[in-house]
Design a protein that fits this description.
By secondary structure, the protein is mostly beta strands. It has one helix and 27 strands. The protein has a domain of 148 residues. It holds the Pfam family Beta-prop_KIB1-4. This is KIB1-4 beta-propeller domain-containing protein.
């Protein structure tokens, strides 16, 4: 990916390049561009130096330190596992005590010398559920330190759990058991527009939403109706049918639009997905614009927007606010692949690369 991978440029230790959140508005806060951990180097027995790269034209780099367990934790006997990220906060699961902890170590504007750690209450496992394998995490606010921030954790299977970290006196998990199996492997996201946590069902036929201000147990389901589907050749259909498919809900906070992104990925060497370390390559991407009535309209034009998908919660940015970010593109970062997709002509550029921390960080506000 031309914006995410460079040909071994020099590493600059400097302040992040700052841009306005919205072009033409001087009152907008300064922000860092979207970024990701390009690589890491050992730095003592307990820490690594992270090389953070920005998705901008000039590829500036930032060096930060982070605990080694946040980066190298894919061993089966690892005591701590990094399980997701949202708004620049990384969540780790401490297996021995069954608790989650939020870290800001990978956040480019966070303190390098005094990183923050927020310990969440012990997990409660519902009957016939598990809390060891986590699909992802989502925050309702930019920071878990905000009073109204809710952290959502989606476990593989039935369980979806919420808590308010800032409510230290009565912080506890509120657990929901999901009966519909189409949501068992779904990734949770927070919709600011709807003020709800939402899950896309496998296959993209349903969206489930949970309103924490009303009946917490009863989800609202939205059935999707697809429109303007593209005509595919026989070879294209056969390729997509042979792929592993995943669905991702993304909300553009600048335009209020909701998108459903379908990724079609194949194993590189024909191995099973059950084999650890299997390499996947993106073979196709489809983007649908979803309205409040359940219409999912296939589109090859999302305007000035760019979508970022990784092991973090997906996010959208205005490309014109960040020079070097291409509009009408989907950027993808995974453990063994970095790729980008151009909606206009459905072209994909993909590179094989190992990322130990495959988390894209959305723009961060700069405060002086």
């Amino acid at each position: 990916m031309s914006l995410l991978l460079s040909h071994s440029p020099k590493i600059f230790i400097r302040k992040p390049v700052l841009v306005r959140a919205s072009a033409g508005r001087s009152s907008s806060p300064l922000q860092t561009p979207p970024c990701f951990v390009r690589g890491e180097d050992p730095c003592g027995p307990d820490h690594v130096e992270l090389r953070i790269a920005y998705a901008t034209r000039f590829y500036p780099k930032l060096i930060k330190k982070a605990p080694v367990e946040l980066v190298y934790n894919d061993a089966s006997d690892a005591a701590v596992t990094t399980i997701g990220s949202s708004h620049g906060w990384v969540a780790s699961l401490m297996h021995d005590v069954g608790t989650l902890r939020l870290h800001d170590d990978l956040n480019p504007v966070a303190s390098n010398s005094d990183p923050k750690r927020i310990l969440l209450p012990p997990l409660v496992t519902l009957p016939h559920c598990q809390t060891q394998i986590i699909t992802n995490v989502s925050l309702s606010s930019l920071s878990p330190e905000e009073e109204d921030c809710v952290v959502a954790v989606k476990f593989l299977g039935h369980q979806l759990s919420f808590c308010r970290p800032a409510s230290q006196s009565n912080s506890k998990w509120f657990n929901i058991k999901i009966d519909n199996p189409c949501f068992f492997s779904s990734r949770v996201m927070f919709s600011k527009r709807h003020n709800m946590f939402r899950l896309p069902g496998a296959g993209g036929q349903l969206i489930g939403s949970w309103d924490l201000c009303e009946d917490k147990h009863t989800p609202k389901f939205q059935e999707l109706r697809y429109h303007n589907l593209p005509e595919l050749s026989k070879a294209e259909r056969e390729t997509m049918h042979s792929c592993f498919t995943s669905e991702h809900l993304v909300e553009s906070r600048s335009t209020g639009e909701t998108f459903l992104v379908k990724l079609f990925r194949q194993t590189v060497d024909g191995t099973s997905l059950k084999v650890k370390g299997t390499k996947l390559k993106t073979k196709g991407v489809m983007v649908f614009k979803v309205d409040d009535h359940g219409n999912a309209v296939y589109t090859q034009d999302i305007g000035d927007l760019a979508i970022f998908l990784s092991k973090s919660e997906p996010f959208c940015v205005r490309a014109s606010s960040f020079p070097g970010v291409s509009p009408n593109h989907v950027y993808m970062l995974d453990v063994r692949e970095v790729a980008y997709f151009k909606l206009t002509d459905s072209s994909i550029i993909s590179y094989t690369h190992r990322f130990n921390a495959p988390y894209c960080c959305p723009p961060q506000n700069i405060e002086y």
